[in-house]
Amino acid sequence: MSAPRFGIWIIGARGGVATSTAVGLAALQHDLTGETGLVSALPCFSHLPLPNWDEFVVGGHEIRDVTLFDEALRLNRESHVFDAETLIACQENLNQVESRIRPGVLWNVGRTIRELAPNDADDRHSPSAAIEQIKADLNDFRRQNDLENVIVVNLASTEASLEEAAWPDSWAKTQAMVARDDCPLPASSLYAIAALDLEMTYINFTPSLGATPQGIDELSRERGTRHAGRDAKTGETLLKSVLAPMFAERNLDVLSWVGHNIFGNLDGKVLDDPNNKASKVKSKDHLLEAILGYAPQTLVSIEHIESMADWKTAWDHIHFQGFLNTPMMLQFTWQGCDSLLAAPLVLDLVRFALVAGQRGEIGCMSFLSSFFKSPLGSENQAFFDQTRLLKAWAEASA
Questions:
Q1: Which residue among 27, 38, 157, 251 is least packed, with the fewest CB closer than 10 Å?
Q2: CA–CA dist 329, 104 (Å, integer)
Q3: 348 and 332 in one domain?
């Protein structure tokens, strides 16, 4: 009897994170790298029925006219990641992924993201037609590769900020909204609807709306499937979620917290648009009040510095008050390769989601909150509380 095969369908399939994920998975399949950076490889999760690396097949949607291997070469050339031997050994794997990439959806993506696509790209689909096209691509992927299950992961560029208060609170209202030619839902939500309607899992790695509306969550429950998100936590915000509880537990009063972020990749270029940047800033900034119980003065800046390529640097200045009203200060610098920090988390989320599916869990996977800046289904923003939630979920099947 052949081993099961599982699909990873990536939205934004030729972006930096997607490319790094594909290279990383291929390197794991060829035993060219260890499992450093993979949460699911920790001993506390060894009892879970996690899929083996060679059981995964990757495909996806992409709006840009590039190739996956060329993107891997660019990352190597500009950001000095991946060694040449690994890329050569993984080239055929990347070419196979390339053959499974289909044109993406451009509905309500905004001017900045639309400009990334070729001028002749078809963006005239109605929302309902776009969903049907996505579903057809997903069904073809599942059928042609004889897949037991498919996890859809949104790694696309951040969409412009949207007002969430008006989103539909039921699946019936969502269907009515999608039927309108002026449907305000963005592409990330259309992808979520298509995946969940096919009983596939949807994971939103981005700050975009995705499956956030209550009506889309209701769809996941009706179809007996799952979703998780929102906005993966890999750098500065990860440190905020670790350090802020320290101030709270030591009863130190945070007066202000300023963070300045620079990076040079495509995500940074998209975030140069103030409408797109607003979504990211909100996601990075809101957790302090949730952890501290009050709102210190904050400032989050994100700047695109092209020479940085895929590397990002964050400088944070924390002004706090101690005993006898004594002002004190903490500063830190975080520097990492953006895509290489994110890629292992993509693989972790897919593996954990597949275990949740095997257990028959449905709806929002709140136990994955430690991976996200704005975790759906959980109000707790403290990192170690979130990791305890993940471990408790894992131990439930021990």
A1: 251
A2: 47
A3: no
Write the single-letter amino acid at 353.
A
Type of residue numbered 57 = V
Alpha-carbon span 26 to 347, nearest angstrom: 12
- Pick the last residue of a domain from 293, 322, 337: 337
**How far apart are the C-alpha atoms of 329 and 317, rounded to whole Å?**
7
Instruction: Give a yes or no: residue 243 inside a domain.
Output: yes
174, 193 contact by CB (below 8 A): yes
Listed as ranges, residues in the chain with pLDDT below 70 are 1-2, 119-124, 163-165, 268-269, 271-284, 397-398
What is 94-112 written as a DSSP string? Answer: HHHHHTTEEE---TT--HH
Lookup: tokens for 355: 């275990």
Residue 7 is inside which H or E element, if any? strand 6-11
3-state SS, residue 257: strand
Q: Give the number of residues written for the chain.
A: 398
In the chain, the amino acid numbered 296 is P
Give the H/E segment covering residue 333. strand 327-337
Q: Which of 109, 161, 116 is nearest to 285 (CA)?
A: 161
Last residue of a domain, one of 337, 367, 384: 337
CATH of the domain at 137: 3.40.50.720
Residue 396 dihedral angles phi and psi, to the nearest 5° = -60, -20
Strands 327-337 and 311-321 come out as: antiparallel
CA gap 79, 336 in Å, rounded: 11
Q: Which residue has the tokens 């309500």?
A: 108
1 lies in some domain: no
Domain range for 331: 236-337
Considering the domain architecture, whether residues 283 and 174 belong to the same structural domain is answered as no
Contact (CB, 8 A) for 150 and 200: yes
Q: Are residues 35 and 178 in the same domain?
A: yes
pTM for the model stands at: 0.94
Q: What is the pLDDT of residue 1?
A: 45
> Are 157 and 287 members of one domain?
no
Q: What pLDDT does residue 107 have?
A: 87
210 in the same domain as 250: no
Closest CA to 151 of 11, 12, 37: 11
Residue 71: φ, ψ to 5°: -65, -40
* Rounded-to-integer distance, Cα 123 and Cα 247, Å: 49
What pLDDT score does 162 carry? 73
Greatest Cα-to-Cα distance within the chain, rounded to the nearest angstrom: 71
